[in-house]
User: Fold this.
Amino acid sequence: MPHLNKLRTVRTGGLGGDTAPPSAVRLRTALTVFFALDGFLFAGWVVRIPAIKHHIGASASSLGLALLGVSAGAVITMVLTGRLCHRFGSHRVAVGCGILLPLSIALPAHAGSALTLGLLLLVFGAAYGGMNVAMNSAAVDLVAAIRRPVLPSFHAAFSFGGMAGAGIGGFAAGHFSPVAHLTWLAATGLLVTAVAGPVMLRNTPGTAATSGSGAPSAPTTADTRASSPRMSPAVRRVVALFGVIALCTAYGEGALAEWSALHLTQDLHATPGTAAAGYSLFALAMGIGRLTGTALLERYGQTRTLVFGGGAAAAGMLLGSLAPTVLLALAGFAVAGLGLANIFPVAVGRAGALAGPGGVAAASTLGYGGMLMGPPVIGFLADWLSLPMALTTVALLAAAAAVLGYASRTASPDAA
Assistant:
């Protein structure tokens, strides 16, 4: 691993006073661009779902079944991508998915039926799932190389990329057809990959690394993981623990994306514009929280960040779901976004540090499952109890993430 081993000899600003080498800066920039592109493309697709539904004449139920193609493709690929990263390297897989994802995003606009849409979304979901695992695996290696907990900053790029994609998509929805918009997204994605991809490929891990003194260096963490991709039962249990923590936070993201606006309009009688701002405020707070994540991790450590974040998210969601006024509910959503912001990056990062791409894949798959599970569970509980009471389950799982985060404090030497 010539490039990354060289990076490991240099401490970055804030931890040793030295500046990062140019190769580290370039690689971090390229990874940030890939994370932002991932969020940008996914949000751009989501805002065109209503238009595509109308185009193919799908019912709500048939559209729901078709949309499962994204989930199925993502989950299946997430399981397999860890092995691909071990064999070919996270950087190569990320760049490959950076080509496949833009190409696949143009496909749904050409669907003629719900069945065709589902099959096309299977390809899109596969590219999306592979991109997420490969990017996070590459990011975990970079974190180990520069010895700074910068993983939340990459997830902040994803959040802000998603906000940009949704904003541009909202404008495009009123002026361009889905075919034109998604084709433009595909071209933009390919252009971005053409610019950022070569930086990733030039930093592909190697095997004949040497230290700065010219003597053979000791095997690095990433090298060791690559040569022994199978997890021991003990490591597998710890990775599963971090996966459950990721699930707890992703559950809240999925629930608020689908149900926050309805809660504000139905239960608190907010205007449609104010209701739409509910999730936007949550997403903005999450993005800001992730921008500050590195500073929080450096100051308080991973365990405290998990515990405090889960506690804040639980308090925020109790306020957001049970508040008697719109203003208090919006404040609760913002606090929840700040609290949840860094739980998923920390959980995935620690899983990757323990087990490499396989750990990232396992934790990401569980986390993505939580995002899929949230909306239907909230809907079922809303029919059984009420929507405000159903939303309190987000607070319950956030509190569970805090408890599990504290329980994981001995999982790695730098966890405190």
Remarks:
- The radius of gyration is 21 Å.
